[in-house]
Amino acid sequence: MNCNVFRDPKPCDGILNQDQEDQMNISGYRRCYVRSILCWVCIVLTGGLLRLVLHWWRHWYLFATCHQCPLDEADQVLIVEDYQGKHKLYHVKSVRVLNTNQLKSLLLKGYPKSSEVDDNNLQISVHFTSAQFKNCSSIRIFRCKQLVYAWDSTLNCFNKVNGLDLNVPCSYYHQQRGLTVYEQLSRRIVFGENEITVPLRDVKTLLFLEVLNPFYMFQIFSVVLWFTYDYYYYACVILLMSIFGITMSILQTKKNQDVLQKTVHNTGNAFVLDSKGVSKEFPTQTLVPGDIIEIPSSGCTMQCDAVLLSGNCILDESMLTGESVPVTKTPLPPKRDMIFDKKEHARHILFCGTKVIQTRYIGSKKVLAFVINTGNITAKGELIRSILYPPPVDYKFEQDSYKFIQFLALIACVGFIYTLITKIIRGTDPVKIAVESLDLITIVVPPALPAAMTVGRFYAQKRLKVNDIFCISPRSINVAGSINCCCFDKTGTLTEDGLDMWGVVPKSSTNQFQIPLKNVNRLPYDHFLFGMATCHSITVLNGTMMGDPLDLKMFQSTGWILEDSKDIPDNEKYGLIYPTILRQPKDFSSDTSSHIKTGLQRQSSVDDLLANVGLSQTQKSFDHGIVREFPFTSSLQRMSVITRCLSAQGFNVYCKGSPEMLQQLCRPQSLPDNYSQQLSTFAKKGYRIIALAFKALAPKINYTKVQRISREEVELNLEFLGFVILENRLKPDTTTVIHALNAAKIRTIMVTGDNILTATSVARDCGIVSPAQAVITVHADPVDLAAITNTHAHSSHTSPGDTKSTSEHYRHRQYKLQYTLDLGSKNCAPSQWKSNCNGNTVKQESNLSGNCPPSLYRLMSTNSLANGSNTSYAESIFPNSDSLASVKTVDTWTHNEAIEVDVELGTEFAQDDNWRRHYIFAMDGKTWQIVKEQFPEELGILLTRGAIYARMSPEQKQALVMELQKLDYCVAMCGDGANDCGALKVAHAGISLSETESSIASPFTSRNPTIAAVPNVIKEGRAALVTSFGIFKYMAAYSLVQFISVMILYSIDSNLTDKQYLYVDLGLISIFAFFFGKTEAFDGHLVKQVPLSSLISPTPLASLLLHLVVVTVFQVAGWFQLQQQPWFQPFQSSDEDHLGCYENYTMFAISSFQYIILAFVFSKGAPYRKPLWSNWPLCLTFILNCCIIVYLVVYPSEWVANFFQLIVPPVMSFRYVMLIYGAAAFVVHLFVESFLVEYLVFKKYQVRRDQSWTTSKQQHMRLEYNITANENWPPITEVYEPHESTDWEGGQPTYVSLGAEQSLDTQHNTFLGFFDSSDNNAHNIKQPPSTPSVEQ
Fold this sequence. Notes:
With 1336 residues, the protein is an alpha+beta fold. The radius of gyration is 37 Å and the shape is globular.
């Protein structure tokens, strides 16, 4: 019976978490007694074997004992998780029924005095969304992946029980009062205790589950069989190895459980407000969503997620974000029309696991917070669940190894049937037939294979640990060997964490940019300086200033003092009306001469200064108090403060943030005409640019109103003040590592939250983009010509509002993609490029528009990817003012007639179109989101060539990694853990450079915070992968060699003796397998060719088949040559204990040589591992075993021959023939592996096939082919070609603006951009001989 969820009022199937990342299918089942009885009869008949199989696949047991039923009647549910269509995970969960009886017993247990409870008034409260608690007498629930799901009778389906953070208006939290005892318990019975649960199993359970593992079950089967076969020695060894393996596994699992349990252990008490507002102390385990708690002034560790209602808190969030910088949390604004969003309002939330260092409050008001999430649904709970239930990684090698084992098992079955038939025909004893036939299975599928497979990973993990790289997921090591694409965060990963002040570019009173000022101490006392001194979130903890490195660097450069009142206790000083006071430097005096004496010569006179800031002559103090702070959020890209000069009336707003964002928030009249040109000049040099703005609040606004005013009102119609320029230097080894990865043909991609031009500059500096490579910046512009031709092109910027609304906004608007071309430097030497940051040091190749500096062209092109047409029409865009158009990422503009532009562009493209061969794309987060949602056809192509992703949010970083994986890239992500946690988790190999708890879900963590860890991980991954391949091939080849030997001997009712088996299995195979992985990773350069990751591919299959043919030929040849000898006597089977014969000697001798030869042949060195001789234990083992075999074959002593039951041939010549067989086999196997397999099959066939665009199975290769084949795409809408410019500090700017008079007034046009003409006589304007230098 299969019910339809949409039509049937009682559905049997449903969907959990619809349209979310963790969407799963659910089906209801009820016990069927007939099926259960039949199932258990079959289990008894199969001797329990069927129950074992049903234990491995639990959903089969569900099908065997239950039948499907409506979900609201189900005893059990089957939850199917389909991960990216590649992996299916099955969860079988029991449904529990909660009722008021349980609530009553809980109430009586906790509160014995409330014995006279009216059962009719007792209700269970369950919450799904919108703060609407549903009261009911009973509810059906189940737990899956540590989350609670309850039956929602209104929607007729199971829904996740959510906290109070879903679809709730912000005003709701401020309207609530404390909960009564009944309300608390009725919620707690559904939400559970406020604890993050980690599945804890005792040793007995762990032992039972480990023994029932298929691998150990096969070993137990083998051991039992060998004991039956009287093969005691090897059986005991395997048994001991298994016991050791099981013990180690249980100890490790128990240790991991205990460590995780210790991490989440919840202790302590909290002050909870009751319904009357009285604060009472309760254990933190009793907290439920809806409680109001008091945050102690001495600080605490949060045990729940809570929204701050009053007061400020300073938190250490390093456990969650990896950022060690304290974060200031402010109260949530009580807006009715604003829906609470966990990401958008993160600066108002105290997250579980974070530490409250200090609280700030006004007067006697308490610091209160409203609990929104408890237990597993908290931020820390999500982190722990991501560790317990990681996304399944596509372990191709492991999947192929299982298929290969199945293939070996098939061979074993063929041998089993053949032996069975031949032995029956010969009338052999039935027990012997059964034992020998089953023994073939243990020969072909060696029980030690899974253990041997982990050897490579084990050694690689140890070597990584020596290099301070820790791996919590050893399976990821093999995957790291296949990496062909690396994504890097910029700040803190490619560049240093800290920033250095480069200088400031203030705006003059004439609305022009002033000369860049390197020494901030020389700034006049005006709003620009006050903005730098006050607009930050720095706090003083234990006498040390703490805060964001950028804030600290800016503030310290001003020389101002952040007041720390040591005389007032911490918990009292925040009762002051100004929580933070900023003092001007002590040497300030109204006398100008004092500035000269102290050497602090500021630019404005004091009289001018006092007039500017509206102070009278008598007011000499510029000390400021920060009255209110609006913290920085990545989605808003800004922060602001409301301050008051202590000696003046009225409040001022200072705001700092990304230049793109402040461009929208400032009044257009306050922006200099060349705002975007100035911004792009600095950004292209790789500087970090912060814009500053200011606004004076209305005089009538008092202190109370300041505390209530909304952020939107404050950050509107600001007055632009200027830019603060900071340097972000590359880490010492960044360039070396990037070049090494590029040389190895491993794609390098930058994913950053910074400006796109800064990102492009850093990408050129470190080598992600080569000096001569063209960068095409992709923009998504709205289909609105008016918006496109707008002077300030606001349409290309993010809306200042919340990201959620803008995302919806993108979705419902039509966009078209525009492409901006930056050709890079064409013939610039690497040293030039490096020293000049941007590579703009080449001379212009063609002279366009007379002597006008070559610049940008804008085309509205009809080129499309589909038709490949190259028809285009040019459109001239004239600015509305006399100045240049201010458009994002546009560097310079030349305004010509439309026809002229068309002609010029046509000739330019005809002259040089080489950039199309190897260009890359750059885009920002907004464009990425639009392309992902509205341009699915272009997405794959843009990803294939995309190298720079700027202004990316943490969610977008994660989505980017997943999209790259869909194109068949094996992706590594390297970040500092701060905003990269999501991307680190989903990447094939996440490498975190942070040691905080937030990076715990990343497979690799490096203590050395540089990207040097990336090539190390790749090298060790490649070595481990090659080792695993070698061991697997060797174990498979060994089992097939032994299979052939045994099959030949079975034909005469003989076999290898116990001691021979023991020597081969222990002396040869186990020792080779153990030392095989000790060969270290290659210490040279990474090579271009990635090692094979699939066993089911031509090379490994051809290798095994060819070696198998050689093995068979040599054994059969030896067998026939033996029978031709005059002294040969055929074996007569008489006793199982006497298997020795000439045939046994011959097969043992030849096969023993083959075991050693194959181990040697499969132990490959360069280019993935060091040479074989560097692994001296393995070399020693080869030499020792060769000597032993030669001794056994040529001249064994009598006791040795008796021990091995060797019947040595009477003539020495045949013994020497065996040595010749060994030598010949060595030559042939070596030729097969090195020439036929490595050269012909691998290099000449498979590599060419995999690297060919037409025959490659990888999607990104096919897309690359399509890009190369289409010469008319992408259609360029803007072109920027660099020209020769002098270095920033030493030249005179030339502004080119049609319709505007040329101005050579050095006082106003003192900023040197990249408008300089390569010809100083451009437009017949003569440059003045002297050039103003930048003030130092």
